[in-house]
Amino acid sequence: MEGFLINWITTFPNFAAPLLLACMGLIICERAGVLNLGAEGLMVVGAMFSVMIIYSGGGILLGVVGGMFAATMLSLVFGIAVVVFRADQVLSGLVVVALGTGITGIVGRAYTHKPIQGIEKFDAGALGDIPFIGRLVFEQDPLVYVTLFIVIAGWYLLMRTNWGLRLRAVGEDPATADISGVDVQGMRLVAVMISGALCGLAGVYLAVVSSQVWVEHMVAGRGWIAVALVIFARWNPIRAIFGALIFGGAESLTPRLLAIGADVPVYLMNMLPYAITLLVLLWPYIRGRAASSAPSSLGHEFLRQDRH
Amino acid sequence: MSKAMELSGIDKSFNGKPALTNANLEVEWGEVHALLGENGAGKSTIMNVATGVYASDAGDVTLDGKKLKVTGPQMATELGIGMVHQHFRLVTRFTVAENVLLACKDQLGIRTTHEAAEAINAKAAEVGFPVHANAIVGDLSVAEQQRVEILKVLLLGAKIIILDEPTAVLTDQESNTVLEFVRKLAEQGNAVILITHKLREVISYSHRVTVMRGGETVLVGADAENLTAEELAAHMVGEQIMAIEPIDAEPGDVRLHIENLVVPNPIGGVGVEGVDINLRGGEILGIAGVGGNGQQQLADCLMGLADADTGKIELNGDDVTASSVRKRRSDGLRFIPADRSQSGIVPDMTVAENLAMTGVPDGQYGSLMSISRKTMRADAKQAIEDHNIMGASPNRSSRLLSGGNAQKLVLARELRDNLSVLIAHSPTRGLDVKACKTVHTSIKNAVENGAACLLISEDLEEVLSLSTRVAVMSKGIIVGELPMQENTREEVGKLMLGHA
To answer: Is the ipTM of this complex over 0.95?
Structure first.
């Protein structure tokens, strides 16, 4: 039993990282007032393009950057639609999901089920031999550490810098930000692109670290879980870390149980992350804290010459 | 004195609809210059042109003798123009210091919230206006938020200070404090533009006045001390408006009896915390008080839109505490909601449909399976004529009505049939003087015909001119009730502040 627990818990970061990356991107985007429901589509694009580049011999680094870049470009299309042309944010987000799934379905056909050389876990040598802590803390893959760095840096940027103050002002009260000389549209576009890059990296993680292969539907709703995670974290990156670990733990339970040959209802177990999502989404509403922590102008377009 | 700001020949239109036509304004250093006009007269628009929020279609802006084009709010700030908006430009979830930091944007060497807090405290001490730099703006009272706005503008080095209806949301006493402060700013050599529609503020606190009407400046830079309230009102409205005559009716039977009513506020904050009211036919009981003190919950609960925790509501002697809205309506209870476009009318439905809305459940316009549009239209035609609803025809969308005419539509629907008690919540909010007069006259006529009216309003002027008795609501309770007398205004003001 102890062995099972250790094996299970050491997989948490691996399952949590992609959720956390996407969630961090969405937090920045939503803090700027743009509701980005396209995470699923952005993750698929990141995953497929990284595999395509690595399989074609571009190397891992180029694969990671390429996957992020492709997702960023897709998010830029979304950003221009909702920020510049003030298209409906919900519908545009759904279009991004459809676009991402569609593009990768077609382009990715040639790369389906072709294994690639991905990123492996660190071998920390002696450090890894420290019981439990060694494997959990030191023997993760490099992107897990990068993820943690991104989230902490993102928190600092958002909550402790003038740039973050302006970005949050744009999401809370764009008219006030505008009058204070903040470029509202520019800020929102940048936030959308950051969310694109981070959702892309989340997809890259799934393809290049977790599965090391491209298969259609491999993102399997994790983009939507990330959207839910933002609400659970109440738009706070640090709380998102814990949220992601909970979700990651729920997701990794099934493969771990199967690995020790436990007789569990697999389909029911596979439902777990989504069932938890549902509960977690209800939680802030039950506590009555959801509305009070969302950025005030989330989902609202902004036009300077509007007469109020 | 030299000129601080001169706007000449300003034109501005929105989607082809002119908002400003050849508007002129000149303000001197060291004066409080009132910009007087009704809602929609173009006061805010011309100031938005001056501060670069809107680009004008034609006309010149001259600042301190230099003709230039203000291209954006940032440039206005650099030129020393500061505006305190009616809807404060403060991020309510940020602290005072964070808001100042946001507004400073690396100017004044303020880079951290700590430096911002120091700057605020220094400025606050200088002008004698205390604020808590680390308080969350949303937790502050409206008067305190306004101080933050004024301090922010001063910190940014404003010499031309524009205040957009600064007293609209304040009690009388708070208003006097801020207006005294405004005078002091002018005495120190600044130019202050006071946007207002209150004549009192022009006469008592301004040096000169510019009056706007329908997007034009009809009186430019006149000496305020040589003008009477009647003259100002005539310029503002374009014609003489007579003050409303007091109600001429003897109090009749008790129509509405409220006992120890407690209504929770679903979003937190103040609800109704135990209210007793006795209202007779032929009476208008005015409930004065600053908004957010339980007025909304009281109105909603009386109409059956919110449940009471405890207490009793009797309508014409019958207990209706648990009755449906429909039952209350058929017993003669009627409602003018504060939010006209949200709960007063359905903007996308036609005038006839809106007028028929309350009659349909009683079968006035046919049964469940068939509706008589012909009757509906005929009734609507009659109502439009009776209440002089301009721009309306039975099949026209209600959205196309102006605020005043939309309110006439609401009145036409609510005042008809067996009206017994009218709950009027801010019935003239956002309306111009003429429309106010019409609304007041309709209410007055209904009361003189025997109805009772509970008038809940933040507009003290309205409460005092229309009511037969005045009560003040504060923190969910009635803190005092006064018969109409000469000195009521001051007494009511004291009660609103909780000093009595």
So the answer is: no
